[in-house]
C-alpha cells in the first residue's frame, strides 16, 4: 500500500517525510495533564473509531492524566506524516503503511494495537447473475479510484480463480456516495469493490447485496494503532495508558454498540447522518458501526481471542508476504520488528475491570 501502499481509499506513495515542518508545538502539560495527539487516517471522524473516540467522550484518558486530541488528517499517509513530523504521538494507519514505512523508508513505526482485518469485498446484486468470482469474467467492476488499495487483493483473487486481472475484467472509478450505488443499480457496473463500512452504506441506501472475497483476505491485519519506537522508549507508561483506554473502549462498544452511537452523537453532533427520521438514522449508523465491529472481532480472533488489540508478528508477517508477492514492496524484514517491545504489553493494556466496563455500557451514560 514498489512504494505504492494499500489504503482504504488510495494506494499511497511514501515520499521523503522528514522534511515536513511541524505545525504545532510538541507535547506539553495542559492544566497538569500531558498533551497527547492522535492523527487518524480519515477525513470524517465518525462513530466507526470507537477505540479512539470513547475514551474522549467518557473522560478516561483525562482521568489517567492525559489531554488527548484525536485529529482526522486525511488518509493513512497524512497520519504517518503528522506523526513523523512530531505533530502527533500516535497515528491510526493501515497495516500496509506500517510495513512500507519500515521496509521502504526505514521509519521505525510500531503496531501498538491491531484494530481490524482486511475487510474489503466485492458486492454484487443479491438477485443478479453474478454468483461466484468466475461469473465476473467480461464484467465491469466499480472502484473508489483506480489507485484504491483493494485492487491488489482483487487481482490476487482473480488470478486464484484462473482469470487474467488485466484483461478479464474492466475497472472503472465511481467514487463514494450515490454514484457507485446508481452505477450498480443501472448495470453500468456489475460489482463494487469497497471496504466494509462503505458496503454498509450501500446497504443503507437499499441495495440488496451478495459479498464475494478471497478466503485469505480476513487473515491479514489492517487497521493499526501506531507509534514510533522513540515514543515507546521515551514514555512507555504513556503508551500503555493510551492503549489501555483503547482496549477498555473496545470492551465497552462490544457490550453496547448503541450506547457508543448515542455518546458519539452527543459529543460530535456534526457527524450524525441526515436525510431520514431519527430511528432510520440511528439504524444507518449502527449498520456502519457493526461493519467495523465485525472487523475488530475478526482481528481479535486472529490474534488469539484473549486480549483486545493484540498484534502478532505472525499476522504482520502474512500481510508483508502478500505485499512482497504482489510487488508492493521489494524486500521483507523480521515481522517482530513491527511489534511494541514493552514486556507483557497486551496483558498490561487489558488490565482494567472488564465487568465494570460492560456494566457502564449497559447503563449507558449518554445524555
TrEMBL record:
Keywords: Signal. It comes from the Bacteria. InterPro entries: SsuA/THI5, TAT_signal. Pfam families: NMT1. Coiled coil: none annotated. Residues 57-258 form the SsuA/THI5-like domain. Residues 1-29 form the signal peptide. PANTHER family: ALIPHATIC SULFONATES-BINDING PROTEIN-RELATED. This is ABC transporter substrate-binding protein. It comes from Falsiroseomonas selenitidurans. The lineage of its organism: Bacteria, Pseudomonadati, Pseudomonadota, Alphaproteobacteria, Acetobacterales.
